[in-house]
Design brief:
The chain has about 70 residues and is an all-alpha fold. It has four helices and no strands. Helix 2 (about 25-30) crosses helix 4 (about 50-60). The two termini are about 15 Å apart. The model has no long low-confidence stretch (mean pLDDT about 95).
């Protein structure tokens, strides 16, 4: 999997998990302690998430960080 493909998987997983929990991306950014712009770049696949931001997002969504990295089959 290329870096761009992995960024896209992470972006899709974040959006899907937020939708399942009924959390807007703006609220997710606030809950995760990230800037809204920073989260926007991650969920559009334009910027790779750091390990720290992945951990913060996963905690805010109540999922394991590894869940955000798994491609859907």
């Amino acid at each position: 999997m290329s870096p761009q493909e992995l960024r896209q998987v992470v972006a899709e997983n974040i959006r899907a998990a937020a939708e399942r929990r009924g959390v807007s991306l703006n609220s997710l950014a606030d809950f995760a302690g990230l800037s809204r712009a920073g989260l926007h770049f991650i969920v559009t696949g334009k910027k790779a998430a750091t390990l720290d931001s992945l951990a913060q997002i996963a905690e805010a969504l109540d999922v394991e960080p590894a869940d955000l990295l798994r491609p859907t089959l």
